[in-house]
Amino acid sequence: MAKTTQPLSASQVNALKAKSSTYTVGDGRGLFIRVGATGRKSWVFRYKKPATGKTTNWAFAPYPQKSLAEARAMAEDYRAILADGRCPQESTAKQIDKAAVTFERVAFEWMEHHGTKVEADTLNDIRRAFENHVLPHIGQTSIIDLRAPDALTALAPLAAAGKLETVKRVSANLRKVMFFAMNRGYVDSNTLESITDFYPKPTPTPQATIHPSQLPELMQRLDGCNAKVQTKRAIQLLLHLMVRPVEATSLRWEYIDFDEGLITIPAAVMKMKRDHVVPMSHQVTDILLEQRGAVHSDNPWVFPGDRDRAKPMSSQSPNALLRRIGYESGELCSHGFRSLATDSMLEAGHDPQVVDKMLAHVRRNDGTSASFSAYARTTLLEKRRVLAQWWSDEITSARVEGITKGSRLRAVK
């Protein structure tokens, strides 16, 4: 039997409080109230677009500007439009008073549209940033009245706090919202087009890492800690493969070809949005085979989450383990393994071009010609196989050295 949604009361809507992340509460028949992390509330109408059958969550009005009774009346109108085979969002856009359209409304429309192009986590990050830093300042500003100084005032606290990377991301998304508003016919020009150039560009901060000479101590600490075996395997794999933390913790068994000795991480997971082929050393193969024996055969994740096995391990789990074994965040982080491996390889005299490919870095002329792509996929791959095995052997040697050192220390005590 289908679950019946109990209609909300006005007092219930008013009493809804913010949580750590955005959530929705249903009133029934497609009407919801969305509560953001900052406590801002919006009415949402959920329906299937007649043309595509795709479910859409349309944030059509803010609360309390529109009461529960008013939202229900608007939702009833939208159901009538649907019954006529038309899309409520598209139909009302043709009739709407542009001066009454707020930035918040357009921002949520854009996020709904943009959500078809990005991962759910990315969309949640965008929504959270807007709710925390933008909507409290300019959310109720009419889209046709919004000007660059308004947006810059909203971003000023972030800039003052030195969070220029966040300023950069939010500015870029503000521009996208306004371009979306142009395409929807709400505005004739993008008044926020130049805001990304106002604040200084963020200075890249190197990921915290250790010197290659400190690798034996790292291995000693990892071997000696009392941590979950799965987390240890994840951090070992991260160290061997030279991939980013999220690329390691979100590995799926379908990415791994044991016969060819290759892991192919799809573009959707990669930062540079290109498939990345990773050669497997003997040590990596052993780690993965051990992990496969510990994971239920039906689970697609190499490292399932502890609380929810249907999701992958958190990408922060390796960092949490590093903190447990005594490394401060400014001393070593899991992303810093890439720098550790790079330093070790370059100090040993290995080809920088091959090292760059190990890291999945993309240069301006990378892949622009078919001949280069073929070279990178064949010749460089074979060189990377050799280098991957060299690096794993270095890690193994460092582990042996760490075990020997630990035994000597215990003997002295």
* SS-based class: alpha+beta
**Architecture of the largest domain, according to CATH?**
Orthogonal Bundle
Order of secondary-structure elements: HEEEEHHHHHHHHHEEEHHHHHH
| Helical residue percent band | 40-55%
Radius of gyration: 26 Å
CATH fold category name of the largest domain:
hpI Integrase, Chain A
Overall pLDDT level: 86
Share of β-strand residues: 5-15%
Summary keywords:
Double Stranded RNA Binding Domain, 2 domains, 413 residues, hpI Integrase, Chain A, alpha+beta
Structure description:
This protein has 2 domains: 10-197, Integrase, DNA-binding domain (Double Stranded RNA Binding Domain); 212-412, hpI Integrase, Chain A. Helix 14 (352-358) crosses helix 16. It has a 4-stranded antiparallel sheet. Residues 364-376 have low confidence and may be disordered. With 413 residues, it is α+β, with helices and mostly antiparallel strands. The protein has 16 helices and 7 strands.
Briefly summarize what is shown.
By secondary structure, this protein is of the alpha+beta class.
List the helices and strands and how they pair.
Blueprint: H1 10-15, E1 23-28, E2 31-35, E3 41-48, E4 55-63, H2 68-83, H3 88-95, H4 103-114, H5 120-138, H6 148-160, H7 164-184, H8 215-224, H9 229-241, H10 245-249, E5 256-257, E6 262-265, E7 276-279, H11 282-294, H12 317-324, H13 337-347, H14 352-358, H15 370-377, H16 379-412
Antiparallel strand pairs: 1-2, 2-3, 3-4, 5-6, 6-7
